[in-house]
Design a protein that fits this description.
281 residues; 11 helices; 44% helix; globular
Length: 281
């Protein structure tokens, strides 16, 4: 099993040192990671500019695969037609980048919100309507889409949020014959029995967003620093014959720069520990 992390972790270093995507990939490999999750939310200079194909091709020479990616999720409101069109074009371009880099699974949010007057059928309809053009374009590129489970309502939010439970994400994934990305932090806040959810999802599980929290805020901290019970989760991955990457989505934007490499090395070492502890292949 490969150990992966989001390339967003290199954002500050890349900006300071004018790194290319190739430079970032080599850097992550030196820190113990064996695969990468391409962050397509952050402005990646060499990807957004004309001639991005050559920069992508160069990154492939770093000898570390870009197995997964995260598509944009800064959705404009429906009524903002101009920015909505820009968002769609940016997402289509992100899928083109994924194709160029050989990404197997790109993660997409179902664009749902907590609603007080919750109507599952209406939420399902709206979700399908939102995802459909991206699913169609992904099929053209040959990149698989994995729908991510969403964060359930916080104490200050009303009602329920569609796709915050395993059965709801499964319903959407099955409609499109797509995959699923499981975010452990979202599930913890939503009060989900995660081992049970992993077994329900089964072979639909294509990638993970591994992170921890204390059950209230979406902190995206490293495993074993919050309240998630990782032994049961790892056992479920093994029982489910999960074959994707052990992919970390940990927030390090406030990490002091001199500690960045040490922390990321700790994260890759945590991945190796989890693979051994869970007897994962």
């Amino acid at each position: 099993m490969k150990i992966s992390t989001t390339t967003q972790a290199a954002a500050r270093k890349a900006k300071r040192e004018q790194m290319t995507l190739y430079d970032e990939a080599v850097w992550f490999r030196s820190l113990g990671f064996t695969s990468l999750d391409l962050d397509l939310m952050s402005p990646i200079r060499c990807i957004r500019k004309p001639g991005w194909e050559s920069f992508a091709d160069e990154a492939l020479k770093a000898d570390i695969p870009f197995t997964t990616a995260h598509l944009p999720f800064d959705y404009p409101p429906k009524y903002d037609i101009k920015n909505r069109e820009r968002f769609m074009l940016r997402t289509y371009h992100a899928l083109d980048v994924c194709k160029r880099l050989g990404v197997k699974w790109a993660v997409i949010h179902p664009h749902t919100k907590a609603t007080e007057d919750y109507d599952e059928e209406n939420e399902f309809k709206n979700t399908v309507e939102f995802l459909e053009p991206f699913m169609e374009y992904a099929a053209i590129t040959g990149v698989g889409l994995a729908v991510e489970n969403m964060l359930g309502p916080k104490d200050v939010e009303p009602g329920h949020r569609f796709c915050s439970t395993a059965d709801e994400v499964i319903r959407v994934a099955d409609h499109f014959s797509s995959g699923i990305c499981w975010d452990t932090g979202h599930a913890n806040i939503s009060g989900i029995d995660q081992p049970k959810a992993i077994m329900m999802i089964g072979k639909r599980l294509k990638t993970l967003h591994i992170n921890d929290n204390f059950g209230t805020d979406d902190l995206h901290i490293a495993p074993y620093t919050g309240l998630i019970s990782w032994s049961g989760f790892l056992k479920a991955l093994k029982d489910n014959n999960y074959s994707g990457d052990l992919n970390f989505e940990v927030n390090i934007k406030n990490m002091p720069f001199p500690l960045l490499e040490t922390y990321l090395k700790h994260l890759s070492e945590t991945g190796r520990f989890m693979i051994t502890e869970g007897e994962l292949q």
